[in-house]
Amino acid sequence: MTRNRYKILEEKNIVLDQLYFQYVPKRFEKAFKVKPSKNTLHITCLPHIDLLKKYMESGFKDLEKTNYYKMHKSWGRKDGWIRKKIHRFVKLFKDVSKNGLKKPIIITKKPLYKKFHDGYEIYEGHHRASIYVVLNKKMINSKIVEFI
């Protein structure tokens, strides 16, 4: 599927608890040692959250032990690339913490692959949604889309 081939249906605030991360079979099976389900795909299980919590506890120490680092490593990414990605993510975390969300996340009711839940699947915005979870926000501005 070509990226950004979707139609925006509406923009509204969504309860974070209704969000699930995108299930892509090849990537999911490589990175995670669990079966995809409503529980394992829930936003609170995102490896992004693990990374931010670790960063808040001890800064940039032992990042390679986080699920976020391990996920990218399992996809064949090199250490330097992952570390740059982490630094950009932390920079975004600090900015959103101070200034709020600058653009909505992109979500879909109908996932690209198999449906495991009744919520919304995040298409773009996993980092921003994770930041909102860590900041204990309840709602996030979202564009609900349909793929064309």
- Class based on secondary structure composition and strand pairing: alpha/beta
Under the CATH scheme, the architecture is Alpha-Beta Complex
What is the CA-based Rg, rounded?
15 Å
Can you tell me the CATH class? Alpha Beta
Measured between the Cα atoms of the first and last residue, the distance is 9 Å
According to CATH, the fold-level topology is Conserved hypothetical protein from pyrococcus furiosus pfu- 392566-001, ParB domain
CATH level 4 superfamily: Conserved hypothetical protein from pyrococcus furiosus pfu- 392566-001, ParB domain
Helix content: 25-40%
Largest pleated sheet: 5 strands, mixed
**Bulk shape:** globular
What is the helix tally?
5
Tell me the series of helices and strands, N- to C-terminal.
EEHHHHEEHE
Oligomeric state of shown chains: single chain
- Poorly predicted regions are none
Question: What is the β-strand count?
Answer: 5
Structurally, the number of domains stands at 1
